[in-house]
Amino acid sequence: MITDVDSKLLRVGVFYDGNFFSKVSTYYRYFHPRNRRISISGLHEFIRHHVAEVENMDVRYCQIVDAHFFRGRFSAKEADARQMLLDERSFDDVLMNEGVVTHYLPIIKREKGIDVWLALEAFELAIYKRFNVLVLIAGDSDFIPLARKINSLGTRIMVLGWDFKYTDRQGQEKTTITSINLLQEVTYPVMMHQIIDDKTMRDNTKIRNLFVEFKSDKTIDVHHVSTNQQRQTAVLAAEQPTLQAQNLEPKSQTIHESESAEMYQASVNTQRYDGIIVNLKAGFGFIKSASFPNNVFFHWSSMSNVDFSVLQEQQHVRFSAEQGDRGMIAHDVEAF
Hints:
The chain has about 325 residues and is of the alpha/beta class. It has two domains: about 5-210, 5'-nuclease (Rossmann fold, 3-Layer(aba) Sandwich); about 225-335, CATH 2.40.50.140. Helix content is about 35%, strand content about 25%. It is built from twelve helices and 13 strands. It has helices at about 5-10, 20-30, 40-55, 75-80, 85-95, 115-130, 145-150, 180-185, 190-195, 205-210, 225-240, 240-245, and strands at about 10-15, 60-75, 100-105, 135, 155-160, 165, 175, 190, 275-280, 285-290, 295-300, 315-325, 325-335. A hairpin with a 2-residue loop joins strand 12 (about 315-325) and strand 13. Helix 6 runs parallel beside helix 7 (about 145-150).
């Protein structure tokens, strides 16, 4: 028997393209005035209220009944070698505490098949769990067939999209754009960067809660806690590249944010060099090249054609190099 409350309840399913979400969260942490990562709990609360608003419902009857996160992942052994294992588990804790189901595919050279898996799971669950609204946190036009299938079920689709570009610390321009064709296929296209940057919404509680707050130096955003550590470790590596080349660890890991700028001071050399990745850590690595007597440092933000997370040691790369204050730094790195 369907009660009056059952008839009013609006069921929401949320599906994350993990790679897209990671790019968005990293942008807000390091290249946006907010200087904070996206909060999973805050994002879910925003979704509930926004869906309730567009559906003209009381937010009490608008509930996220399912949430799923999809991304490629290294094996435990590989993640441990890259010093990523603890960080991945920390983010898993965040997702688990927020009731988000994780779906990981093994990364073999590069991330493949995630979009297909997300689409299949979303379509199947939309059928069996009868979502009223399916929220897609993604920007790829590859999800257009999924949107059309979901529309055929009579389920409304909301896409949370972001458009942004920034210049990384190597002077390279990075761009993330949500497909306009995808937005045209869905019921509720929501461009989050416009809402977040709207000056009239700056002090809105729901907007503030979209970002993780650091209450003290010891309070770390465990959503990708690794990124904060990556910045610190990357600076250490730049200061002592010979130690890393010998697999030695510096004794101190206390680095101030302002010091990180020093590792990027360089005069740009447009010549391209070939090399092999000989050492990968959490967010940085070293390249061995016949063109240089010492291994060349590179940061995750210097990658130009692939995501840092899919790199492997002994992989061939081509790069430009800058003479920094403490050694050579690679930029515009292409992996093959």
